[in-house]
Input
Amino acid sequence: MIKMKRNGMEISEAAQTQPVQEPKQGSAPDQRRSSRTRLSTAIVAVMTAAALVLSPFAVTGQALAAPAAAVKPSAALAPFVKLGIQNYKQIEYAIKHNLVQPLNTVVTKDGYKLTLNGVITDKYELIILFTAQADSNRAFTSQAPQVHELQLTDAITGKVISGKKMNDAGVYGVSPAKQNHIMHGTAVIRLTPPLTTAPQKVAAEFRLTSLTGSELKQLEAMEAQMMAEAKKAFQANPKDKTSKTSPELLKKYNALKAKVKKSPPLKAVFEIDPKVSEQESLTLTPEETVDMAGHQIKVNMELTPLTTITTLSSDEAVFTDKAFKEKFNNNYYPSLLVKSGNGEYKPQEGGSTYKYSDNTLTIVSENYFLLDKPQSLRLDFMNLKENKATQQLVVDLPKQ
Output
């Protein structure tokens, strides 16, 4: 918990538990994904040609206090510090600031062993850290359409927690060198709608995919051959965009992928400590509006240590208007940067989801900076073709 009252800020507790599901490839543009998004407490609207200074944000909610001393990860969590997979920076941050509830929940079935090592949660997002092990002759792999799956349910009510079905969780893993039968992984669920109260008990049902070790080596060799063929074809004719994989190789490749096997359902039940899911929040609300294509847009931001919710709103029904959306996407694409102790603004990596309604655009983004004492945040509205900001909002955060 992070409690501190600063500069007349109001403090109020918010129990939280999970972010909104990331859209799958090929999803509608209204549910797009972005690796960047940004915000701030003194607001500055900057047109491309000239800077236009606006007045400060009204700040309400819980101030975010100085972080506890950095935590050395336990032996169980150490493998997850540098996984380099989805949400890895957020996971590093959560371990560093002691936001992980350790778990040691083990389930074994038909030659598979699954250990839940920890859970990270707020009302918008839930992340499970796990270790899986199979018989030594098998190798974990995820080959679309056969991918690792997870379904979370409330163990008491039986209801699916996210209101979704299988495959709405992103499940990713990395194997130690020469040990493909072992996998350290993360399972990420963005929650829509967000949970107001964390379930007391959670049932996590995993189905993990694998091949035999020899089959995985064959598959990797084929992928390398396909890449070499594509590179050679591109060098010969860069304008030709058609696939250059030989029909014979593609047939063998697809036949091998069809051998990917799912594990039996591996169901583990664990409890969530209420203190883990209670993350205090900071709300930033500008008094002024920002002009976007002749429309006055209000900005509101909710921050927790794990999630940033940026809401753009208008008194007019512009966000489902085709002409406005085209102008917005071309000239006002939002991008979040954070200014830390070195004085530089750096973009935040990680996933975001976008949800449009008539009067609002809500952006739910991964967050892993608040407990690192940022100086300020900046929301750039970008012209992507010209790679420049058409407007900016800058918020100086209270000193922590």
Notes: Confidence is low (pLDDT under 50) at residues 1-70. The CA atoms of residues 318 and 324 lie 6 Å apart.
